[in-house]
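Summary for the steering committee. The consortium agreed at its last meeting that each partner would contribute one worked example illustrating the joint modelling workflow. Our contribution is presented below. We chose a case with several input lines so that the handling of multiple components could be demonstrated. No manual editing was applied between input and output; the record is shown as generated.
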Amino acid sequence: MNFELNDIQKQIQQTFREFVKRKVLSQAKAIDENREFPMQLFREVGDLGFFGMRYPESAGGSQMDIVSYSLAVIELSRGSLSLAAACTMQSLMATYFLYRLGDEEVKSYFSQALEGKKIGGICMTEPNAGSDLFGIQSKAEVLEDGFILNGQKTWVTSAPVADFLTVFAKTDQTEGLSIFFVPTHLEGVNIGKSIEKLGVRGSLTSEVYFDQVRLPSNYILGHLGDGTKYLLEILAEIRIMTAALSIGVATAAFEDALQYANERKQFGQVIYKFQAVKMKFAEMKVQLDTARHYTLFAASLSDQNKSRNQESMIAKLYASECANDICDEACRILASYGYAEEYSLQRYLRDARFTLIGGGTSEILKLNIAKELIK
Ligand SMILES: Cc1cc2nc3c(=O)[nH]c(=O)nc-3n(C[C@H](O)[C@H](O)[C@H](O)COP(=O)(O)OP(=O)(O)OC[C@H]3O[C@@H](n4cnc5c(N)ncnc54)[C@H](O)[C@@H]3O)c2cc1C
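What follows is the complete predicted structure of the assembly.
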């Protein structure tokens, strides 16, 4: 079932589907168990052009539409949400501000990142600032010829393997947030140890400390205090992308459960024939298709440059909640085998929890959806 995809979109979907079948599925379990960044696969995803899909050709990308990008994300996360999380970080949040606001030196990192030769991350969250970004305490002192950055960040995806970071901080001159480009080799940048997580274990996450980090003037991205304005430019896309991650993992859970229900026999027949089990599949199918259609609809609004803030929040909220429901139901269908490490279902269930947090928690999205209603 498709959202009236055009030929190019179908081709993209097929390319990533084939790649996942050939390369990712056999490694997904090990990526999770070893808690290691899937460097080889990450580079191969780069070779497929994924990191540059949403950037213009003039910047080294392939200028694909957001629907195509979302389809690629769905396929990658069908194979491994760890891999997909690392790759989407690289293709969107880690690189956007370099592309949009960087000078020539900064853009050279961007170009290498599109090829997967340099790895990036984004540092917004702090121990005391999660949903409330304005609670950020990291601070840059403005000098005549640059900045001195101090602060602590946490939950930074890809930080343990990152070559550069995009850092949100306040300054001594403005109330608003500013964005800084910070190569990780600079003195005073310290990457903490990886945070052990319930899911997406191959997408490494860690704390980062900035201790008197000296930045030249060209490492500010955009104007002082305008960080939130720039973030808003991609917030809808971040949410659509997170919805796509949710759909991918939910699809994997649904398909595994469907296959199992048609093989497992109890009381003399395959369990799919029991009405109570069939009802679960009908409910999951409705959720999955609705989430998929709505997300691609939200993506298509982006492609038409139409306002999509509300739609992107609805897509992310609905798809991530559905993904968690579907992974839970699929696990129940496998019963004890859904609880066994040998099967992938437990991994999907653990991984899917991430989609409830990244791109805004469900509570924050509900508040903002309601806020839009009375604008
Ligand atoms: C795997 C993973 C990867 C991540 N990667 C990155 C990354 O690369 N870079 C980065 O900067 N961050 C990253 N994050 C952090 C993520 O963005 C934050 O976890 C998220 O913003 C929520 O912040 P918090 O966890 O501090 O929760 P809090 O904001 O403390 O929220 C705690 C609870 O309170 C609720 N709550 C908070 N405020 C309100 C309110 N006003 N009304 C109602 N309920 C409210 C929330 O919904 C939640 O249930 C990552 C997180 C995870 C789990």
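The chain has three domains: 7-114, 120-225, 232-373. The mean pLDDT is 97.
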